[in-house]
Amino acid sequence: MKFEFSLAQLTVLHTSPVEIAKIAANCGYDYVSLRQIYMGLSDEVKYDLKKDKKLMKEVKEVLNSTGLKVLDIELARIYDGMDVREYEGAMEVAAELNAKHILSSIWTDKKGYYIEKFNELCELAAKYNLTVDLEYVPIAGVKNLKETLEVLDNTNADNAGIMIDTHHVHRAKDDPKMLRSIPEKYFHFAHICDACKDIPSDEEEMTRILREERLYLGEGGIEIKDILNNMPIVPYSIELPNLKKVAEYGYEEHAKRCIETARDYCEKYVTGREYATI
């Protein structure tokens, strides 16, 4: 079985779109996942492909010469006071690069509000033939599978989806078997990584591990196969930030080890599940 992999921005965080694309191509990835919607963090360097035509041209040259594809653009966060139209520029970039998906997450506890905004986001993305894939994050507003499914149950958008991250499933203490109840149409891609088995009780420590100490597949204590084998096989975007590994190996070697360990693990343990037509 052939598995497809994408290199997520957080794995090689401080790289430009050209740099991450070159690393992904050199390491044998099928896709790259680009950050074009920024988080407002103090150490972020913004690479706006909509405004920087020279950079856009260089990215296209890498894609065309290597056969690498763009899987998704991140991160369309839903938060208090936001306007979904602020993400349209990134959607235009995604469409121009033939990307397939926009990654989203929810960072407010106001259920009626975030369901409304998620529907607006799906409507806008549909203009660009993009899916909107909702990722739950244990430190966010929508923090587990149950809450995510409530959002999907309250949208009629054909382009709505769910983005499962193996780290978050483990940290949320969700039962992987719950994934079997979800229609196949909602699965478009997934994030994979490993992490320590013990779940931090302190949110600050959970956040630190999430952002800087995830592990190669098979190195930690997450039952990754139980998660992946309860959902269809989709492209796996490797989101595996680890500051120590990057310091030791550099970005490209770290990215190479990410895909090598992921491919070995998937070939040994992942079969996916067969879905009836729903």
Tell me what the structure shows.
The protein is of the alpha/beta class and 278 residues long. The protein has one domain: TIM Barrel. It contains 10 helices and 8 strands. It has an 8-stranded parallel beta barrel, surrounded by 5 helices. α5 links the parallel β5 and β6. α1 crosses α10 and α9 crosses α10. The longest helix is centred in the C-terminal third of the chain and has 19 residues. The model has no long low-confidence stretch (mean pLDDT 95).
Quick structural summary:
This protein is α/β, with parallel strands linked by helices. It has 10 helices and 8 strands. Helices cover 38% and strands 16% of the residues.
Computed structural class: alpha/beta
In CATH, the homologous superfamily goes by the name Divalent-metal-dependent TIM barrel enzymes
CATH class: Alpha Beta
Strand order of the largest sheet: 1-2-3-4-5-6-7-8
Q: What is the H/E order? A: EHEHEHEHEHEHEHHEHH
Q: Give the overall form.
A: globular
What helical percentage do the residues reach?
Answer: 25-40%
Model regions low in confidence, pLDDT < 50 over at least 5 residues: none
Kindly report how far apart the N and C termini lie: 24 Å
CATH architecture: Alpha-Beta Barrel
Number of helical regions: 10
The proportion of residues in beta strands is: 15-25%
Average of pLDDT: 95
Features:
eight-stranded parallel beta barrel, 10 helices, globular, alpha/beta, 8 strands, 278 residues, TIM Barrel
